[in-house]
């Protein structure tokens, strides 16, 4: 009589351990999205029906990189398990309006299905006044822009930008070409931040010795000269200054 009772207790113990282990498993939404949208605030759906079971010690994550140029917006988004990290929500405005806009959002969380954001509406409050004095080729595309119409730039922007973002990680491996208007000097669309959640971003721009011509107050065109150019010109100009003095 004692042996069957012990067997029953062992079965209950095994079942209880299995249920406890099942209850500790972490489930996350899983999905990838790489697209270019004209109206992402209303048209982009970030939900997914795929589910991923995480390894022990992992977290759920959802990360999105939003790049807006003119009327088009590139979106790179990933959801799933992340093997390590700390629970946190991070929102970064890498490039702010007016002009080109780059925003990233990442959420690392510890509860099952906590990576459940479904839209981009909270990131979409952009407004600007268009200037008629500056025009820039403008586009954003996965891979390469096949057309870049010259569009009027918003007030507050001072120069044209051209660059490429190479993005890897979180199941994503893609490049995004970006052209447009900005107030930021140099190749700093990402403001020097190289990691966005599980994604790593490398920014590359064409090398230019001279910046764009600027208009002075009297309407004349002023071309900036590099320092090495001044060093070469100085010996040639000195005799003229000495002669006139």
UniProtKB/TrEMBL annotation:
InterPro entries, per database record? Fert-Immune_med_protein (IPR051899), LY6_UPA_recep-like (IPR016054)
Protein keywords: Cell membrane, Glycoprotein, Membrane, Signal
Domain UPAR/Ly6: from-to ranges: 47-116, 133-211
What subcellular locations does the record give?
A: Cell membrane
Tell me the gene name.
TEX101
Q: Origin, by domain of life?
A: Eukaryota
Please give the name of this protein. Answer: Testis expressed 101
Q: Which Pfam families match?
A: UPAR_LY6 (PF00021)
Signal peptide start-end: 1-23
């Amino acid at each position: 009589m004692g042996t069957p009772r012990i067997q029953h207790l062992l079965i209950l113990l095994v079942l209880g351990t299995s249920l406890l282990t099942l209850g500790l498993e972490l489930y996350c939404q899983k999905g990838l999205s790489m697209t270019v949208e004209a109206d992402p605030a209303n048209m982009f759906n970030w939900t997914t029906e795929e589910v991923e079971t995480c390894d022990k010690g992992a977290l759920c994550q959802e990360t999105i990189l939003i790049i807006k140029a003119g009327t088009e917006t590139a979106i790179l988004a990933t959801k799933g398990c992340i093997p390590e990290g700390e629970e946190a929500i991070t929102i970064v405005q890498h490039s702010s309006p007016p002009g080109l806009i780059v925003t990233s959002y990442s959420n690392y969380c510890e509860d099952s299905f906590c990576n459940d954001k479904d839209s981009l509406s909270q990131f979409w409050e952009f407004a600007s006044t268009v200037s008629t004095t500056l025009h820039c080729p403008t586009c954003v595309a996965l891979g390469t822009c096949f057309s870049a119409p010259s569009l009027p730039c918003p007030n507050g922007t001072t120069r044209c930008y051209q660059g490429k973002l190479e993005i890897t990680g979180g199941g994503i491996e893609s490049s995004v070409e970006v052209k447009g208007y900005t107030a930021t000097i140099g190749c700093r669309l990402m403001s020097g931040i190289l990691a966005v959640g599980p994604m790593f971003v490398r920014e590359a721009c064409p090398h230019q010795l001279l910046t764009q011509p600027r208009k002075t107050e009297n309407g004349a065109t002023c071309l900036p000269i590099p320092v090495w150019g001044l060093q070469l010109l100085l010996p040639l100009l000195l005799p003229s200054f000495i002669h006139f003095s």
